[in-house]
Each structure stands twice: as C-alpha cells, then as structure tokens.
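User: Could you check the structure of this?
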Amino acid sequence: MSSVVGTIITPGDTPGRLAGHVASVFNPSFRVLARFARSYERKDRVLALQAPWFLLGLLATWLALMLCGYSAILWAFTKIPVADAFQEAGSSMTTLGLSVTHSHSAIVVDLLAAGSGLVVVALLIGYLPAIYAAFNRRETLVTLLEARAGAPAWGPEILWRHQRIGILDTVRDFYGKWEEWCADLAESHSTYPVLLWFRSPDPLRSWLTGLLAVLDSAALYLSLSPEAAPSEARLCLRMGFTGLRTIADVISIDYDADPRPDAPIQLTYEEYVRGVKRLGEIGFPMERTAEEAWPDFRGWRVNYEHIALEIAERINAIPGPWAGERKALGIRTIPTKRPVDRTPDEPEGTDYTRPGTYEES
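Assistant: Sure, the predicted structure tokens are below.
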C-alpha cells in the first residue's frame, strides 16, 4: 500500500523502490527482445510496448503482494490452512465472496482485502488519464521540433534551419517555450517516472533526443555568438539541466552537481567542429571561431551530457547525432533526415544530405 500511495497519489520526486524493482525486470527483457528485430522501426515497435506492460506488471505485483499479506493475516488469526487462507483472501480482493470464515477477525480482514483490491484498481484507472495528459503535453512540442531540427533532432540543425529560411529572430520565443516545457517535464516525469519509457509515435522522434538537441543549440549559440544570443537561451539551458537532474534523482543516476567547465565530455572535438562547420556553410553569424567557442560550449554541455546520455541508454532513446550510440540494441548513430529543398526555380531541388540510415554494430 505504501508503494501504491507513493507511486499514484503522492506528488513529488520520491523514487518508488518497488516500482524500480519491477522496472528492473522489464527493461532488460524488452531490450533483449528489441535486439532480435532487424530494422530500427521494428525495434521501436517492440520498445513501445514496454511502458504499458510495465503498468500491468506493476498492478499485478501490487495485487499479488496484497494477496500474500492478507492470506498471512487470515492464517495467523483464524488458524485455517494456508491454501484456504489464500482462497479466502483472493475471494475477498475480487469481491466474489466465494469463501468466508465466520469469525469477527476474519470478517474484518475480508473487508479490508475487498476494499484494498477495489482501491488499487480504481486508482490505476484514474492514474492513466493523468499520464496520457502529461504525455500529450510533452509530445506536442516534440512533434513541432521536427520542422526546426529534423528527425532525429540535432542541435546544429536547429540553428542551421533557422538561418536557412531567415527566421533566426524567432529563436527567442522558441527557447522561451522550451524553458516552460522543461519545467513541465521535470514536474510530470518525476511524479510519474513511467512516462520516461513512453515513446513518441514516430520512431525517429524522442523527447530526450529533442531536449538534448535544443540544449546543444542553445549552448552553441551562446558559445559562438555570445553578444547576439538571446537571454532566453541561457534560461532554457538552466531549466533543461535542472529538470534532467530532478529526473536523475528519481531514477538513481549519480552526477556531479557542480562540474568544472573544463571537465571531459563524451562528445569529441571533431564532432563539434563538424557541427560548427555546417553552420558556417549556411552563413550563420558567428563572433568566434570553433576553437575559441569550444571551451564555453564544453562548459555548458558538461552540465547535462552525462545525465542525458545515461537516461537515453536506460530508455533506449533514438541515437541521433550527438546523442550517443545504443550498443545494447545494436544501433549506431542515425543521421538526421532532411527533405530535398525544392523551389519553382529549381524543381529538382537541392539535397543537403543523403537520406538518413543506420548501421548495426
């Protein structure tokens, strides 16, 4: 009952120990099943079933433990055989009333068991609308991000596209919306951690890959053009890594709360330079060279990279550029897909990159 109340009723970011044990069974099981699928789309379909089955497994665990508990109480108070105690407890929890021991203590236990079974099922039914409401809020902005960041999302791609179509002036509002989104994410996903494993309908989209791309784009803007970058970029970064740390506390990820700006990061300098070079090709306004901006960019990314990549590994997020690989699934980085740029003057269009593919490790 403590697990039920802490998981469903109590708001906050207190990790659920029992729910964590159940998750530790489902996570590796679905990861093994997904690895057998050959294409990434099939892997994603397998992993999309993990969160719903986890909820059913958690409900079954709660009911099974309550059945054992009430059976033990009945056995202790009435001295009936253990098998009869299980039969009576199960009969009471399902409100069938098929087996009853006529004693005052047994009746009290039967009533408690009947009430508990109904309460747990009713709470889970009421829990689902809250989960899906938070899921819909999360996915709305993630879906909108595809037009600005491609699929899978990539930080430099966000700035590249804004510069390409001349809407760089809209990034102020863009980062403002993502700052609010990060705050909502921290609150909803720490209260309902199962949301972490709910996947986007499109296999090339992920809330985590999208968030990482937005934070990387803000870090790039602040590093390459500190004078021109909007203040909202800094606020978005702050809220982004604060929200990730809140989630990390819930799912027990260790992190350095005050990292040094010169601490090592997983993203290599060569990968960073390729991203900056892409921005230079489109004429993105830069006040610094890639080499000059690298210390600042690394100083920003060190605040969120470790947590983001660790969560990505646990939830099997799509491995977009700068988002790490998923070696457990046998998938390397999936390049960002971009549409061919067609115009009336150039109907054949300009293909800025080859179609995205993925490689199996």
